[in-house]
Amino acid sequence: MEIRQLDKEVYAGKKFTAQYQTNGYYDIRATGQGFEIKYTPFEAPTEKGFDDVFFGEWLEDPVAFGAFEDGKLAGFVEGAPESWNNRFRISNICVFDNAQRSKGVGTALMNTILKAAEATGARMIVLETQSCNESAVAFYKKNGFDIIGFDLYSYSNTDPENHEVRIEMGKKL
112: Cβ–Cβ under 8 A, 6 or more apart, which residues? Predict the structure, then answer.
């Protein structure tokens, strides 16, 4: 496997699909005095996914790195500085092929983007995931990230009922 920087001129605007399977979700509910987070299994494994583009226009001076296996893009990570608060945001990290997951591709990509974030002088690196992406939450925790917040209604007015609450995770640099 080879990690190399992706050329913005080549990849900007290209579409990709990220997919994952999940066995449960973190049920996040508002209570009278705060919030409650409880892991809840689904009745059966659930497939989730979303479409996005490389180098989204909203990113401020983004960088992206790809993991190539036999010349094929196996996964990538993308991020950008947030100058207004001196943080670096990972906007996407994805290993496309299920057969490549849990084989170090994601860890290699994470280590690469962490170095890029540190080089910007950012005070913290942050990212977003969903409460139903239990594998992502576990991966980020394994890599030193903590839950730093969440948004009950980021994607729709029914996110809690859909078991898809936005979770913010971060790591001090």
Answer: 3, 65, 77
CATH H superfamily, domain 2-172:
Gcn5-related N-acetyltransferase (GNAT) (3.40.630.30)
- Which residue carries 């030193």 as its tokens? 144
| pLDDT, position 150 | 94
Q: Measure the CA–CA gap between 87 and 42, rounded to whole angstroms.
A: 34
Residue corresponding to tokens 């496997």: 1
pLDDT at 76: 97
- Give me the residues of the chain with pLDDT under 50, please: none
Structure pTM?
0.93
For 31-59, give the DSSP string. Answer: ETTEEEEEEEEEEEEEEEEEEEESS-TT-
